[in-house]
């Protein structure tokens, strides 16, 4: 499954990141890498963008970009 | 002869508390300078310590030196082209591993660096206090605790900086290089690629950075090096699913993890108060209403709290006016002081407290971390009208002043989104328009003045979004810039930073009062006083000649000339109103009565709407011309402004006449 289909409070591990090189570079510099646990923490009024939590960081991603991040099926 | 002037660059991730520390280090001795060839403002400030003058340079917050965004480019090129004597790397101790990633890049580059760990109290609360001595030993650079909110915390930092600077300067003088670059062992294929590049003649850090940035670097690469790099990247792409950037970043995190393996941040929880605040402010249903409620509170407070000090200034001004009327004989000279200077300049000065309060509230929104959350909540609406998420900050800055706000759009890289953000910015009601609103709202909506202020600002936002929607249909679409934003942790604003910010704004306001507002008031006074033949003044003649255009809006010649003069700067509208009405009123308090007697409430509303929407002031037009590179956009801005203002004010007058 991909990151954008997570429900609130659910935590998964990142399996794979695809998408443009520019996107992957931005994600990497923020520490969004394979093997990291990631959690959905807030959803904006229109369901897009959403806030994800990685350790102590909270990062806001648009669903189009979150769809490029593959995560494990369960915790 | 030893050197006593040194440059120290502050480098760190966004939201690491770098700017508070900078303020603490330099105090009020700051200036904003545009670095050569780059487009983002960089602040500089000085501090003398132990006989050495330190010039601190506050570089924009950045995540990585190998990423080609505006902020990163500025810092990267600065470090390459005008290397500072020392780098002060500021880190958030409570989120150390992410912040250390940038540090490893600085150290690989062999830059003389000192680490300052902010937020130690936060780390202590989480029971994750990093071992500074261990870090220092392993990284081979000095590591100190610091706190941008306490002035006592910067003294040891300055001591260490001066000691390190003098030591490294002496070594350099003796041609001894002591700074050994950090060496991280990367994944084997990356190491192989690095070897090929170093064999081609690149230093190791440049090899790593060009792989990490996939060739997009600040230094020159020769043809051979470029070819080697392309081959190496191809080799890596064949053998790995992950990009070179991801592999190298993973290597950095691996190294950092080894450094402080006892700090297991993946399981560190966000504090309950942060989660609680986020639970409310980011709530899917409550978030937006709460944001608008806070904006309403801000305008309410701007009006009500500002009224007290405004009263004192008003009393002061009328006291001076009375004194002058008493001392001086009734001559033209007395008239220029009382009817020109005191009525005009004094008429604007009265609103200083309101303007200052508004700036203070905006700064609190920014420093507490609420601004980023508001940007998150409104991103969808913004992207629907062709705006980038990065447009949020320049738009809110527009509530202060449109000129720096338009310059701040430089961080938006996609040209169409940037152009739209520039063109709609004048509809974000700047603080120069605040005096007119406060004056009129106080007269016509005395019971709900704060709500009226809020309403007029909301109207500005709505018009801005409407125009953005139209422009985004009309201008050719370009590829959207990626929108990824970090939400900073909630923080108490630093008192010192707030005060410095407010002091800056007070100075700006006073400069404007002594400059363009003074000139405008004098011009209006001359037009109002001459010719002294007992008939109508030039000003009145001009106003009456233009009045047919404005009569459908309910304005008399007084408002007409006030609006004309507002082209110089919007504060002048209030100054001119004060002067034309005060010509037959005893004191400033009489101004309100005089306006109320002359204008119907609906016309007052129309005047507020007109002041909101009509053309940008001279300074804003100049900056629109400069930033878009053409007078066409500036002209369009005047034209749309005038058309919208007239129709908006007409509508407000008609509808207002029914209800008010």
From TrEMBL, chain A:
Domain Ferrous iron transporter FeoA-like per the UniProt entry, residue ranges: 1-73
Matching InterPro entries: Fe-transptr_FeoA-like (IPR007167), FeoA (IPR052713), FeoA_core_dom (IPR038157), Transcriptional_repressor_C (IPR008988)
Superkingdom in the source lineage: Bacteria
Recorded GO MF terms: transition metal ion binding
Keywords: Iron
Entry protein name: Ferrous iron transport protein A
UniProtKB/TrEMBL annotation, chain B:
Protein's job: Probable transporter of a GTP-driven Fe(2+) uptake system.
GO CC term (a single one): plasma membrane
Family, similarity comment: Belongs to the TRAFAC class TrmE-Era-EngA-EngB-Septin-like GTPase superfamily. FeoB GTPase (TC 9.A.8) family.
FeoB-type G domain ranges (all copies): 5-168
Subcellular locations according to the entry: Cell inner membrane; Cell membrane
Binding of GTP, residues: 12-19, 37-41, 58-61, 118-121
Listed GO MF terms: ferrous iron transmembrane transporter activity; GTP binding; metal ion binding
Ranges that cross the membrane: 285-306, 341-365, 385-407, 419-446, 452-475, 509-528, 599-624, 631-653
Membrane-topology annotation of the record: Multi-pass membrane protein
Name this polypeptide is given: Ferrous iron transport protein B
NCBIfam families in alphabetical order: feoB, small_GTP
InterPro entries per record: Fe2_transport_prot-B (IPR003373), Fe2_transport_prot_B_C (IPR011640), FeoB_Cyto (IPR041069), FeoB_GTPase (IPR050860), G_FEOB_dom (IPR030389), Gate_dom (IPR011642), GTP-bd (IPR006073), P-loop_NTPase (IPR027417)
Biological source species: Neptunomonas antarctica
Subcellular location, principal: membrane
Binding annotation for Mg(2+): 23, 26-27
Coiled-coil regions listed in the entry: none
Superkingdom assignment: Bacteria
Entry keyword set: Cell membrane, GTP-binding, Ion transport, Iron, Iron transport, Magnesium, Membrane, Metal-binding, Nucleotide-binding, Transmembrane, Transmembrane helix, Transport
């Amino acid at each position: 499954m991909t990151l954008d289909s997570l429900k609130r409070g659910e935590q998964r591990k990142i399996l794979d990141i695809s998408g443009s090189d520019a996107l992957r570079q931005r994600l990497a510099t923020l520490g969004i890498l394979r093997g990291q646990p990631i959690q959905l923490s807030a959803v904006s009024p229109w369901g897009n963008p959403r806030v994800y939590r990685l350790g102590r960081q909270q990062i806001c991603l648009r669903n189009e970009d979150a769809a490029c991040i593959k995560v494990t099926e369960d915790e | 002869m030893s050197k006593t002037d040194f440059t120290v660059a502050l480098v760190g991730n966004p939201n690491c508390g770098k700017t508070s520390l900078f303020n603490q280090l330099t105090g009020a001795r700051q200036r904003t300078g545009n670095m050569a060839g780059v487009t983002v403002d960089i602040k500089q400030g000085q501090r003398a310590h132990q006989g050495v003058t330190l010039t601190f340079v506050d570089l924009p917050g950045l995540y990585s030196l190998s990423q080609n965004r505006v902020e990163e480019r500025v810092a990267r090129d600065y470090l390459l082209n005008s290397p500072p004597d020392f780098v002060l790397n500021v880190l958030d101790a409570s989120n150390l591993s992410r912040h250390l990633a940038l540090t490893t890049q600085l150290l690989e580059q062999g830059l003389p660096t000192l680490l300052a760990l902010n937020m130690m109290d936060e780390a202590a609360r989480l029971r994750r206090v990093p071992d500074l001595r261990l870090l220092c030993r392993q990284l081979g650079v000095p590591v100190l605790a610091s706190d941008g909110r306490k002035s006592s915390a910067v003294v040891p930092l300055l001591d260490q900086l001066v000691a390190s600077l003098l030591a490294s300067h002496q070594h350099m003088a003796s041609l001894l290089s002591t700074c050994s670059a950090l060496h991280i062992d990367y994944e084997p294929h990356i190491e192989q690629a690095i070897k090929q590049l170093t064999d081609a003649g690149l230093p190791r850090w440049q090899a790593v950075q060009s792989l990490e940035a996939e060739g997009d670097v600040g230094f020159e690469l020769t043809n051979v090096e470029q070819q080697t790099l392309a081959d190496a990247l191809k080799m890596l792409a064949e053998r790995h699913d992950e990009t070179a950037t991801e592999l190298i970043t993973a290597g950095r995190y691996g190294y950092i993890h080894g450094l402080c393996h006892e700090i297991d941040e993946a399981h560190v929880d966000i504090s309950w108060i942060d989660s609680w605040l986020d639970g409310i402010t980011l709530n899917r249903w409550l978030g937006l209403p709460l944001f608008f409620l806070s904006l309403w509170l801000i305008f309410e407070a701007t009006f009500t709290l500002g009224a007290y000090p405004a009263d004192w200034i008003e009393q002061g001004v009328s006291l001076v006016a009375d004194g002058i009327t008493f001392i001086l004989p009734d001559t033209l000279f007395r008239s220029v002081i009382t009817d020109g200077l005191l009525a005009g300049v004094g008429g604007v000065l009265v609103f200083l407290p309101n303007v200052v309060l508004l700036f203070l509230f905006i700064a609190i929104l920014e420093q507490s971390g609420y601004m980023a959350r508001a940007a998150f909540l409104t991103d969808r609406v913004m992207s629907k009208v062709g705006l980038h998420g990065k447009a949020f900050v320049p738009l809110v800055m527009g509530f202060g002043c449109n000129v720096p706000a338009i310059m701040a759009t430089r961080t938006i890289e996609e040209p169409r989104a940037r152009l739209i953000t520039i063109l709609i910015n004048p509809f974000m009601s700047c603080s120069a328009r605040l005096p007119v609103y406060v004056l009129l709202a106080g007269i016509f909506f005395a019971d709900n003045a704060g709500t009226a202020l809020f309403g007029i600002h909301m109207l500005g936002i709505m018009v801005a979004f409407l125009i953005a929607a139209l422009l985004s249909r009309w201008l050719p679409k370009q590829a959207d810039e990626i929108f990824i934003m970090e939400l900073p942790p909630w923080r108490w604003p630093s008192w010192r930073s707030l005060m410095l910010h407010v002091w800056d704004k007070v100075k700006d306001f006073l400069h404007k009062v002594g400059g363009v507002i003074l000139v405008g008031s004098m011009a209006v006074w001359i037009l109002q006083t001459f010719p002294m033949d007992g008939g109508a003044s030039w000003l009145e003649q001009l106003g009456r000649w233009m009045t047919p255009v404005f009569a459908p809006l309910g304005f008399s010649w007084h408002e007409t000339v006030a609006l004309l003069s507002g082209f110089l700067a919007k504060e002048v509208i209030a100054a001119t109103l004060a002067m034309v009405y005060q010509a037959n009123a005893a004191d400033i308090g009489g101004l309100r009565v005089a306006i109320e007697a002359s204008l119907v409430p609906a016309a007052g509303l129309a005047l507020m709407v007109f002041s909101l929407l009509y053309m940008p002031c001279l300074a804003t037009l100049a900056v629109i011309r400069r930033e878009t590179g053409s007078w066409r956009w500036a002209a369009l801005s005047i034209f749309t402004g005038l058309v919208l203002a007239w129709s908006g004010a007409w509508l407000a007058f008609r509808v207002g006449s029914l209800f008010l």
